[in-house]
Design goal:
Strand order of the largest sheet: 8-7-6-9-11-10
Number of helices: 12
Oligomer: single chain
Number of strands: 23
Strand content: 15-25%
Largest sheet: 6 strands, mixed
Helix content: 25-40%
Shape: globular
């Protein structure tokens, strides 16, 4: 909507007179919206499509949805509309490190798609969306990406599931579909092609992202047994989901379990680990964490609650890899040295910087094996170490990293035990996504986030989920193979294993 539009909402919330609307001016956007009394400012800005990120989903605990209301800094999620206001939004960073590149297999099937015409592939991540446009022969002709616009609804799938079940499902579905439609236009414009030339579209994502995209309630993901809904390959009319896509064929890749989805199937399809005699560990850690271990003989997968901290969420100065983010930390002459993306003053720290920072503190003796900071300095009442400028690493930040580390470490160990092997017997460690592309593997191994035995066996494979979606779009045979993969890969429910708590606790040591 442009600045001439006025946005109105129904007023069903308590607080404020029924039907009373107040004008909210957004000077940076040149817009004025009308908001009902009693609604939180975060809800109003979500509906207007211009909300700041809210990793906690609006619970008031992350402190990231800060705005200025009539000159005073407030949390949007804790500010109730009770009169006219001028709201200054935080400056939007230029997100430059959204990963689109992947690994392509030389022996991939020839282009024999389901539908005739241009090919589109999307990987809908909890945090980012990557899109790929290919010609009729399967050659890539345009690529693009953007942040997942669901971010104001929470940084993790659990928060979004909860909000969807409280009445926000339509909004969550609408915003992700609009993002894919916009990205489609961007790709077509870049290639100077028309939408009516589209023939086949493949979309992958974790189960929650897939279901919200397709307009399916994620209620099945909110409680035991967390059974997947999308268990079969399906071909449908794409225009029924996004009108722009018209009569193109929309391919739905099946999920392995309620928390290991089509994106993981895409990773396995890309790496072809199911056709290798080598024992491979594929790790894809984003806002969610999925791992697959095995070979052609047998494969097992698990999901770990590992991602938010490694994406910058739940970290006091956490942010994604944008200008101003500390992405790497080293120790030089006994001092902490930080590399800041884009140069200039540090504004926060991203996941790769967080891992490096803990390694640096360990080297300097500023953190013990239990993760306790060995310092008297404090920030906002929490033990902390200053990294650069006004960016601090707090005791809670270290704990959040330890929780992620413990979950990943436990998952790897228990999968190996399930397959009857030692971790050292793994032949290849494939690191998918931004996690694998931007972290220092040496740092991850040094604190036990990844097994030290696999340091020399590690290989970054980029956005393997996106590459899998491209492969399925290009080849009907590859698309049909995803059904076999979803059926054959065993799902290991970590929390149900008697040794999980012990392995998790042991994995938190650094």
């Amino acid at each position: 909507l442009d600045s001439k539009h006025v946005i109105r909402y129904d007023n069903k919330r308590k607080g404020g007179a029924f039907g009373m609307n107040y004008k909210v001016t957004l000077p940076e956007l040149g817009r004025t919206i009308e908001a009902p009394a009693g609604r939180t400012l975060l809800e109003v800005l979500r509906a207007a499509g211009c909300a700041p990120e809210a990793p906690c989903g609006g619970k008031g605990v992350c402190g990231k949805c800060r705005v200025r209301v009539n000159g005073a800094e407030r949390l949007a999620c804790q500010t109730v509309v009770d009169g006219p206001a001028t709201v200054s939004l935080p400056e939007l960073a230029k997100w430059e490190r959204i990963l689109t590149g992947g690994c392509e297999q030389a022996d991939a099937e020839p282009a024999e798609p389901v539908g005739a015409g241009l090919l589109l592939a999307f990987d809908i991540g909890t945090t980012t969306i990557a899109g790929y446009l290919m010609d009729e022969m399967g050659a890539q002709i345009a690529t693009g990406s953007r942040l997942n616009p669901q971010a104001p609804f929470g940084s993790d799938v659990i928060t979004r599931i909860q909000l969807a079940l409280k009445g926000e499902q339509e909004a969550l579905t609408r915003c992700v579909r609009e993002a894919l439609a916009d990205l489609t236009c961007e790709l077509l414009n870049a290639a100077k092609r028309e939408a009516d030339a589209l023939g086949t579209i493949c979309v992958v994502g974790n189960p929650c992202m897939q279901q919200l995209f397709l307009g399916i309630s994620p209620k099945n993901l909110a409680g035991v047994p967390f059974a997947p809904v999308l268990t079969q390959t399906e071909i449908s009319r794409a225009g029924d989901v996004i009108a722009l896509w018209g009569d193109a064929a929309l391919l739905t890749v099946p999920d392995i379990s309620g928390y290991v989805g089509a994106d993981t199937v895409g990773c396995v399809l890309t790496t072809q680990m199911d056709r290798s005699d080598e024992i491979t560990l594929m790790v894809d850690i984003g806002t969610n964490g999925e791992m697959v271990m095995g070979s052609r003989a047998r494969m097992v997968a698990c999901s770990t609650a590992a991602g938010p901290a490694l994406e910058g969420a739940n970290i006091r100065f956490g942010m994604r890899a944008a200008d101003g983010a500390i992405d790497h930390v080293t120790v030089e002459n006994g001092e902490i040295c930080c590399h800041v993306l884009g140069g200039g003053e540090a504004r926060g720290i991203c996941g790769s910087g967080l891992i490096d920072a803990v390694v640096a503190l360990k080297e300097l003796g500023l953190v013990n094996r239990r993760g306790r900071l060995q310092t008297q300095e404090q920030f906002e009442g929490d033990l902390a170490v200053r990294l650069s400028g006004e960016v601090w690493l707090t005791q809670n930040d270290v704990r959040q990293m330890q929780l992620a580390k413990g979950a990943i470490s436990a998952g790897i160990g228990l999968m190996a035990r399930h397959l009857g092997i030692e971790v050292g017997q793994i032949d290849r460690l494939l690191l998918a996504g931004a996690f694998g592309s931007f972290i220092r593997v040496e740092s991850a191994c040094r604190i036990g986030l990844l097994p030290q035995e696999l340091l020399e066996k590690a290989q970054a494979i980029g956005n393997a989920a996106g590459s899998g979606a491209k492969r399925a779009a290009r080849s009907r045979k590859a698309f049909e193979h995803t059904q076999e993969l979803a059926r054959e890969i065993e799902f290991l429910e970590l929390a149900s294993l008697p040794d999980f708590q012990h392995e998790f606790a042991r994995g938190m040591w650094i």
